[in-house]
Specification:
Blueprint lengths: L4 E10 L3 E4 H5 L6 H8 L3 E4 L6 H16 L8 E5 L10 H9 L6 E5 L5 H14 L6 E8 L9 H4 L4 E11 L5 E9 L7 E3 L6 E3 L1 H22 L9 E4 L4 H11 L10 H4 L6 H11 L8 E8 L3 E8 L1
Parallel strand pairs: 4-5, 4-6, 11-12
Antiparallel strand pairs: 1-7, 2-3, 6-7, 8-13, 9-10, 12-13
Helix pairs in contact: 3-4, 7-8
Length: 316
């Protein structure tokens, strides 16, 4: 029997209807569309409605991913939700998603907190659990309601973040050389207060300049390490899907890898930073836009609070 590999069978996205533009923000804090756009590349972001929870968005993204994969909820026996904005401290958001989708009570369901790197950590965890042979199909979801932890009077943070969810159905295949062929995860031992949700007021805090520098370095090194690990040159990558935090970070990585920016999928202009939802939203949009084809090699790379980082290589 051939060894199995972890493959993505389908993807899906849900983003809230409400669009908050830079012009809208300029009426709330001292800023302008030009100031935000030139420093971040962001034009607008999505904001959840008053009754729209993280689990609502996660479940809806999962429904789209299941439909894309032609997989029924009854076939799922593992649910991993990456989030820093759960509906409540307990139970896990993954358990609420299980209930909303009607997934079997024999499924393992848990949340994972690795901030903006969360989807990659979740993908790696699901890969290992599927490889054990004890699970058949998994839902890996990144979902965030960051509008609930943003101080809308603090222009250093409220300009950057948005809400949304992205999901992937993950299974196994015996086709050699395809699927998730490698990951690189880690945590940089820096001051956690550089990027955190304050335990006192429950608001997101960030020291932007320091985080920017570390993010560039961490994502560049994560990209380099995964390529070296698999003996690949950067120009062998068909598409890079980076965490969508700041266009200048993405441009820096493109320069480091000596790849044209057109080789990168960018949607930060429309969603801002959606933390754990960022990469799965971009991944789904890239697939639906025809940017990913059979046989392509895709590099995913992220950085988040913790300070976490990660990269992954996928052969489609």
């Amino acid at each position: 029997m051939l060894p199995s590999s972890t493959v993505i069978l389908g993807t899906g996205v849900h983003t809230p209807e409400r669009v908050l533009t830079n012009a809208d923000l300029a009426r709330m804090v001292d800023t302008s569309d030009e100031w935000i756009l030139t420093r971040t590349g962001i034009r607008e972001r999505r904001i959840a409605g008053s009754g729209e929870t993280t689990s609502d968005m996660a479940a809806q993204a999962a429904r789209h991913a299941l439909a894309d994969a032609s997989v029924a909820p009854s076939e799922i026996d593992l649910v991993v939700v990456a989030t820093v904005t759960p509906d409540m401290q307990m139970p896990a958001t993954a358990c609420l998603v299980q209930q909303k989708l009607g997934i079997s009570d024999k499924a393992a369901c848990f949340d994972l907190n690795a901030a903006c790197s969360g989807f990659l950590f979740g993908l790696d965890a699901a890969c290992a659990m599927l490889a054990s042979g004890r699970y058949r199909k998994a839902l890996v979801i990144g979902a965030e309601r960051l509008s609930s932890v943003v101080d809308w009077k603090d222009r250093t943070t409220c300009l950057l973040f948005g809400d949304g969810a992205g999901a992937a159905v993950v299974g196994t295949s015996t086709q050699p050389g395809y699927g998730l062929i490698g990951t690189k995860l880690g945590v940089i031992a820096e001051d956690p207060a550089l990027l955190c949700i304050d335990p006192v007021d429950r608001m997101l805090k960030m020291k932007g300049k320091e985080v920017f520098k570390i993010a560039v370095r961490a994502m560049e090194e994560a990209a380099r390490d995964i390529l070296e690990q698999h003996g690949l040159a950067a120009d062998q990558i068909d598409l890079v899907i980076p965490h969508q935090a700041n266009l200048r970070i993405i441009e820096s990585i493109a320069q480091y890898l000596e790849l044209p920016i057109g080789r990168f999928f960018v949607n930060v202009d429309r969603y801002g930073n959606t933390s754990a939802a960022s990469i799965p939203i971009a991944l789904d949009e890239a697939r639906r836009a025809g940017r990913i084809k059979a046989g392509d090699l895709t590099l995913l790379v992220a950085f988040g609070a913790g300070l976490t980082y990660g990269s992954a290589l996928i052969r489609w």
